[in-house]
Amino acid sequence: MEHAANDIAFTRHAGRRGLDWLRASYQLFRRAPLAWLLLVLAYYVVLVAIKMVPLVGGIAAVVMKPVFAVGFLAAAWHQERGSAPSVRHLFQGFRANLRALLPLGVILLAGVMLAVAATAVIDGGRLVGLFLDPSPEGMSQEAAADRFSETLAEPRVQAGMLFGALCALPTLLALWFAPALVVFQDAGVVVALRSSLRAALANWRPLLRYGIAVFFFSAVVPTLLSLVMALVVPPSLHAAFAAFVLLPYGACFVATLQISDYVSYRDVFHPDEDAQP
Questions:
Q1: Contact, 47 vs 81, CB < 8 A?
Q2: Is residue 265 scored above 90 in pLDDT?
Q3: CA distance 110 to 89
Q4: Taking residues 83-100, what's their average pLDDT?
Q5: Mean pLDDT across 3-15
Q6: Is residue 265 packed enough to be buried (19+ CB in 10 Å), middle (13-18) or exposed (0-12)?
Q7: DSSP state string for 199-212
Q8: CA atoms of 40 and 29, how far apart (whole Å)
Q9: Dist. CA 89–CA 177, nearest whole Å
Q10: Which parts of 81-188 fold into alpha helices (H)?
Q11: How distant, in Å, are the alpha carbons of 10, 47, 196 from that of 6?
């Protein structure tokens, strides 16, 4: 029997909790770093394989994201109860409520497409045109790359991207906890989306701090590291610096970010529940 949205209770947290989510996620990662890195690597290998499918690969990769999100949720759940994360957990979503997870992916795809289309209101379709035709016929690869960079640097395009992000926000919030609600609480699609949106809006303060922290660690820190590489590291060692510093940092951060989906869900919907074996 499907729950009503109001039946799924959640906790409203203070803003500082957003940083706690990342901190707790990193602690889980530190307990089994190799296992988590292998899981992340397997995920991206699978994504690349899906994207290689002709015609539908790119769409399928987006639609399948909630399904694979369950894999990371399952890995964190098992680790919290004493088991090591495993690559086999990545496919847990295919053995869960797949009929509810796939519609979440369709909604994600539709939300992203609408958000990208909305940028045309501000930039007159410049960004959409870039995505639809990234490399015009007869244009060299270098010229196409310059066109891409110049287009993204235009103030109107940047304003359009900001507007598109705002348009995508309701979809992202509705999907934030939805896969976990489907799997852990057997919620249907509508209930999961509504409950996730209600909980996310009620916890906008920790989510805001979480988002700021994610931006700092995903954009500011890599930029600073790249600046250090450009100013201090000899050019002959740039490749080694990227391989032994930038790449491991990025992989560890991505793994921590994936774990944070479970940590934030558990803290909002099950804050007082002890992990049982």
A1: no
A2: yes
A3: 27
A4: 90
A5: 77
A6: buried
A7: HHHHTHHHHHHHHH
A8: 12
A9: 18
A10: 98-118, 120-123, 126-132, 141-153, 155-176, 178-185
A11: 9, 35, 11
Cα dist from 111 to 124, 171, 255, 275, whole Å:
20, 6, 25, 34
Q: How far is CA 172 from CA 112, 169, 221, in A?
A: 9, 5, 24
pLDDT of residue 1: 37
Residue burial 137-174, b: 16+ Cβ < 10 Å; e: rest: eeeeeeeeeebeeebeeeeebbebbebbeebbeebbbb
Q: Give the tokens for residue 188.
A: 């249907």
Give me the amino acid identity at 192.
A
Interior/surface letters 56-84, b for 16+ CB within 10 angstroms, e for the rest: eeebbbbbbbbbbbbbbbbbbbebbeeee
Ordered by start, the domain boundaries in the chain are 5-269
Q: What does the block give as tokens for 182?
A: 């489907």
What is the 8-class DSSP label of residue 56?
T
Do residues 242 and 229 touch, judged by C-beta distance below 8 A? yes
The structure tokens listed for 165 are 């992000």
